[in-house]
Write a structure and sequence with these properties.
binds iron/sulfur cluster, 2 domains, 4-stranded parallel β-sheet, 321 residues, elongated, 12% strand, alpha/beta, 8 strands, 4-stranded mixed β-sheet
Length: 321
């Protein structure tokens, strides 16, 4: 990951307890080895503990989400008079306003503040009722829908992990390469580089955004175009790519080589793609072969596709999907 380190690591927010900080209600932490030992090589983590930030201190009385007649509230498990609902939501607004460089956010699961989903919400009588999102996380996601967000626990799933890291790199590319010198030309160039990445995640989204840029964008202001483009793109990328959709992209990429390959080489490539489609090998196998030939014979357009190298290969993500 030397390229990224030399370049500058990508700023990513994270629940402070995942970095091993002793900020939990019981004075403990939830250190994530994957975040600290692997992802910190390419992500520059900025930690936030909403409960500490609003002055709860540690150790502290735990809080929980309760659906009260006046709405969903974050209250003390023992003392209902402790109500930190607005404080958590206000802190999310503060983080949103101040940490504008973030390209992603990793949250602690199950927390009434930081949980992204499936956080227990209690009935006023004390019984678990439904599931929801922690109040800090929920507000942050509402304020910043383009921001890639994931829970640390879900990063154990190879497909979700690859999806999240891909989105962080795409968003970082957008914030650093397009936003500082925004023009319609830059947006179209960016889109052009991400076409196959988007196609792998969401074929209809790929068509919709293409249509938007060609037909609607010229009638909108630059800011409206950029805003709508990035929100739609990041929304479509949330859908993880599958073997079927990757296979479709691989076949498209192979199409760029048809004039340059002899029958035997084309057969080898098709076999590798089919082995991937039928679950015999991981994505890295057909992709490594394709990249080898695209480097030699591919047009400038196909060689610049982010899909070929969406993140540092040292992360090894395509060895598992
Ligand atoms: S889950 Fe969030 S609020 Fe709870 S200790 Fe971790 S960082 Fe703090």
């Amino acid at each position: 990951m030397n390229d990224v380190v030399a370049d500058k690591r990508i700023p990513v927010g994270i629940s402070a307890c995942l970095l091993g900080q002793k900020v939990r209600f019981d004075g403990g932490h939830k250190r994530s080895r994957y975040c600290l030992d692997i992802l910190s090589e390419c992500f520059e983590f900025q930690s936030f503990c909403p409960e500490m930030a609003i002055g709860l201190g540690t150790p502290r009385q735990p809080i929980r989400l309760v659906d009260l007649p006046e709405g969903r509230r974050a209250v003390g498990t023992k003392n209902r008079d402790l109500d930190v609902t607005e404080a958590l939501q206000d802190y999310a607004e503060q983080v949103h306003k101040e940490a504008t460089n973030l390209c992603g956010y990793i949250l602690m699961k199950g927390s009434p503040s930081c949980g992204m989903e499936r956080v227990k919400v209690y009935h006023p009588n004390g019984n678990p009722n439904v599931a929801g999102a922690g109040l800090f996380a929920e507000r942050l996601m509402q304020l910043h829908p383009a921001l890639p967000v994931e829970e640390e626990g879900r990063l154990k799933d190879h497909v979700l992990r690859e999806n999240f890291i891909t989105r962080v790199f795409v968003y970082h590319d957008w914030l650093t390469q397009v936003v500082p010198h925004l023009t319609l030309h830059e947006i179209i160039q960016f889109h052009s580089r991400h076409k196959y990445q988007l196609m792998a995640h969401h074929y209809q989204g790929y068509k919709n955004i293409g249509r938007f840029l060609a037909q609607e964008a010229p009638r909108l202001s630059l800011e409206e175009t950029a805003d709508r483009y990035i929100h739609e793109l990041m929304g479509y990328l949330k859908k993880p790519a599958t073997r079927k959709t990757h296979t479709n992209v691989l076949m498209h990429l192979l199409g760029y080589l048809k004039k340059h390959l002899d029958g035997a080489t084309r057969h080898d490539l098709l076999s590798a793609i089919d082995d991937y489609r039928t679950n015999k090998v991981h994505l890295i196998v057909p992709l490594a072969l394709l990249k080898h030939y695209l480097k030699r014979y591919g047009s400038e357009y196909v060689q610049q596709q982010v899909y070929l190298d969406p993140y540092p290969h040292e992360l090894g993500l395509r060895n598992y999907i």
